[in-house]
Amino acid sequence: MNSALKQHIEKITPLTDAEFEYVSSMFSSKKLKKHQFLVQEDSEVHNEYWVVKGLLKAYHTDEDGKIHILQFAMEDWWITDFQAYMNCTPATIAIDCIEDCELLVLSRDNKEKLCNELHSIANFFRKKSNVGYVALQQRILLLLNKNPQERYNRLFKLNPKLLQRLPKTLLASYLGVSRETLSRLSHP
Amino acid sequence: MNSALKQHIEKITPLTDAEFEYVSSMFSSKKLKKHQFLVQEDSEVHNEYWVVKGLLKAYHTDEDGKIHILQFAMEDWWITDFQAYMNCTPATIAIDCIEDCELLVLSRDNKEKLCNELHSIANFFRKKSNVGYVALQQRILLLLNKNPQERYNRLFKLNPKLLQRLPKTLLASYLGVSRETLSRLSHP
Prior knowledge:
Jelly Rolls; globular; Crp/Fnr family transcriptional regulator (chains A, B); RmlC-like_jellyroll (chains A, B)
């Protein structure tokens, strides 16, 4: 049993110990070292992952070999290539570890089983998905805003802890600015 | 009863006639003319909307008065300011009608009631939210890709019907290019 996972779920919905034990039995665990891949482009994606410890990045590599960061994930966040996971299509993004990571793994089949068996878990994942949806909308507004300082301020406001842990190169990439531009931005 | 809504829900989950009648009773309907607002910035957002007929845009206006399009919605799509709707905060985007619109309105309270009472509806909205999440990820990859022709091709592949109905000015804005650049792009 992972008490952090129980706390994570109970932020949204209460579970009895027996229910949580059952939910917990549907997860496996996985450890990865810094720089290891969780998902590689073109691979099959059968799982989503909840971060117990560590930091990861999901990104697309364009034809010129330049990487475009879709999202980061740290403790208490979920990550996978959701498109590939949902549609059973090959991954179009890669996910690798910025730090050593400990993850809990939930397969598509186990997730559907849980959501069909436990009404509270269906509602938990519905609400988590809504939160993720809104986070992506924020990310889009961040991308649409052409002023790098405002993008930086917005990211700082949304995720001050994330900002402290990110290597500057990745932060610059996420904000879509050069390292030089990043160094000229004032700390909010 | 709206048979299109029943079909829409039953793409994901079967409902008995009695269940659908109950679900349907939780919606009200709304008609808006072209150019009318569905959501204005800073207003309260208590509802989400399912498009029976018409086309809308959700957008943010920056300090220079320039609009940045977050999403479009046409028949069979859901739209609202999801951040404001979920978090009970003032709207940070506006939504208005590109064409005359007929909408079905679902309040936050009625949605939660339905999701708590009907397991199938909780799963329906969970899956719809997942689909929306993936669509936003696609939108982000579209924004990150700096090649306008590829962005155009990707949008065409995702939504050929939408593309035909959009005024060229809005299409250019969505792709983040000028009208001149748009006119030079080749039709996929």
